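Researcher: Re-running this chain for the archive, since the previous output was lost when a drive failed. Same request as before.
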Amino acid sequence: MFKPGDLFDLSQTEHASLFEGCEHAWEALARIADYLKAHLKPGLHNQCQGVAWVGDDVFIGEGTVLEDGVMIKGPAIIGRHCEIRHNAYLRGNVLVGDHCVVGNATELKNTLLFNHCEAPHYNYVGDSILGYKAHLGAGVKISNLKVTRTPVVVEHAGRRFETGLRKFGALIGDRTEVGCNAVLNPGSILGRDCLVYPNVNWRGVLAAGHIAKNRAAVEVGPRKA
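Model: Regenerated structure tokens:
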């Protein structure tokens, strides 16, 4: 279930060649920098609403709007008809598809977003791949570095997969929704059409079509004067 085609519709990105020869989808993360060096042709075809700061090594497609306060350091390729909202921070090695939303105070780093992907409010997305129509709720954080600083290992069905990656956030399959203020720990893998409830602290692999819930009790009592 870790092959690129198991998680992602590769027809929904112009960067499908990034996955060629990858046995596991996370292998593409280590290729993003070299891919950008080989394919990036800087050019700005966007509109600005206010003042944005854009570095030299950046391509932005037609119909994309940058709002006031955006910073894009590059290298980066951003597709067509995207919304890069107020104070978004793209800080290098970023590939954003068409019709995506990168929202207020959202930070992207070494990341690929497939088409129609949304990270719209106060999100951190590092060393991750978000599939077609994947959506992050407000405040979702994808942790990409273990506290121990050791390489990330994916454990599933009694097997250990050594990724060889010191920084690896998450793979989020097509159409998966992650609720507000959830945290995805390093090496998280969510299959297609999953739902992670708000405030969940997730670690590991969630199979396609499944839900991860919190069942914490809420105590209710009378309000004293």
